[in-house]
Amino acid sequence: MQRQVLIAESEKAVAVRLLADAEAALDRDLRQARRCLRRLAALIEAPSPPANAAAWLMDRRRAADGDADGPEADGPEAYANVADGREAGGVAGGVGAGIVRGGLAPWQLRRVERCVEAGLDAPITVADLAGEVRLSEGHFCRGFKVSTGETPHGFIVRRRLARAQHLMLTTDEPLSQVAMLCGMSDQAHLTRLFRRHLGTTPLTWRRTYRQEG
User: Fold this and answer.
1) How far apart are CA 106 and CA 97, in angstroms?
2) CB atoms inside a 10 Å sphere around CB 207
3) How many separate helices (H) and strands (E) can be counted in the chain?
4) b/e per residue 41-69 (b: at least 16 CB within 10 A)
5) Are 64 and 39 in contact (CB under 8 A)?
6) What is the pLDDT along the chain (213 residues), one digit of tens a residue?
7) If 0-12 CB within 10 Å is exposed, 13-18 middle and 19+ buried, where does residue 181 land?
8) CB atoms < 10 A from the CB of 206, how many?
């Protein structure tokens, strides 16, 4: 019990530090602020450590200090599965399901999803995502396709369009601004993607679904 209290106090100190770092970065570096907040979220959401998972506890502390996701984020079961030769399972944060042979691990899929969602207002490259999950670009693209059934580029485009649809329904922002907020170069870019993937224009889509709402 005393050991668990010490662990809780240690993680509380890390959480306070991450929150302070995020607040300090808000005015000068939004990406850094988002990284701090993602680490804080991972720290809060992590399951309580069991007494027989010393390796997991060590990795959890390293994760809080600079790596919000990783094998340790999947909990002590990941270590047990490695020890006896079984694959780790679980749900991968909404991007895909558990590990598929040749695919990405759940923690890698979660990290990709978080990075994409946090960066939808800016360019996102395959190289950036591959680096986040510690893989070469080729290995990452193959694994992502196996796990999700779509390419990283296809996933990014789909999330940009979903963000655009949300903004079009919930705000009065002009389409040119919606495009910029979703990482597209201009309104014409938004229109091309809408036509290609949804079969209509953003203006028509917005009028139709706002009237229905």
Assistant:
1) 7
2) 12
3) 11, 0
4) ebbeebeebeeebeebbebbbebbeebbb
5) yes
6) 444 444 455 556 667 777 777 777 777 777 777 776 766 665 555 444 444 444 444 444 444 444 545 555 554 444 333 333 333 333 334 454 456 788 999 999 999 999 999 999 999 999 999 999 999 999 999 999 999 999 999 999 999 999 999 999 999 999 999 999 999 999 999 999 999 999 999 999 999 988 766
7) middle
8) 19
Rounded CA separation 120/126 (Å): 14
DSSP letter for each residue of 33-85: HHHHHHHHHHHHHSPPPPTT-HHHHHHHHHHHHH-SSSGGGG-HHHHHHHHHT
Give the number of other Cβ atoms within 10 Å of residue 194's Cβ.
Answer: 22
Q: Which residues does residue 96 pair with via DSSP β-bridges, in sequence order? A: 92, 93
Angle at 82 between CA 79 and CA 83, to 5 degrees: 85
Distance CA 121, CA 102 (A): 31
Interval 146-196: pLDDT, tens: 999 999 999 999 999 999 999 999 999 999 999 999 999 999 999 999 999
Tokens representing 175 are 């389409």
Q: Could you give the angle at which helices 202-212 and 152-170 cross, rounded to 10 degrees?
A: 50
